[in-house]
Amino acid sequence: MAFALTAINMTAAPLLSETYAKGDRKQMQQVCTTTGRAGFLFAAVVFAVFALLGRPLLGLFGEEFRDAYPALMLLAGGQLIKAFCGQSGTLTTMTGHQKVLTKVLSLASVLNVALCVLLIPPLGITGAALATSVSGVAWNVVMVVIIWRRFGIQTFAWAPPFMKTKDKWQIQEQGAGEKRREFDE
């Protein structure tokens, strides 16, 4: 699942960078929507395969691996939700706002470690899967909100009614006719 999502992100990255450089917010939203939906639909298919055939697939590695089915479903569910969040990390990086992403990822890493310390002793591999999924979903959702508030772009595969694209894009003149794109906060 992660391989295909990475491929989609790599395809979207130059498109997002180009639309940002041109100041084409409408096209940027279109790239986010199209690639977000493609990634989510792929993740949904993989999730369904794991939900239906996960135990037998794990059994191919040995009978004892079937016990990891709950962990597999937690990880796959986390990936599905992260895929629904779309191009949040890629958009942030391609528009020069990687410092915000770095801060959010750092906090998510601390959350992951804390949850692992709390959940692995009582739950084992399932606790590790839960900690990883929760921290991964957390940083993705936080980034979706940050992008929506700062850029007026929503990255969910399908936008909830309260989160329609905002008209916040501004182009401001700077210096000798050089343009810089800024977003209201």
From TrEMBL:
UniProt KW Transmembrane keyword: yes
Keywords associated with the record: Cell membrane, Membrane, Transmembrane, Transmembrane helix
Main localization of the protein described in the UniProt heading: membrane
Subcellular localization: Cell membrane
Bilayer topology term: Multi-pass membrane protein
Spans traversing the lipid bilayer: 37-58, 104-123, 129-148
Protein name: Polysaccharide biosynthesis protein C-terminal domain-containing protein
Natural source organism: Paenibacillus cisolokensis
Lineage: Bacteria, Bacillati, Bacillota, Bacilli, Bacillales
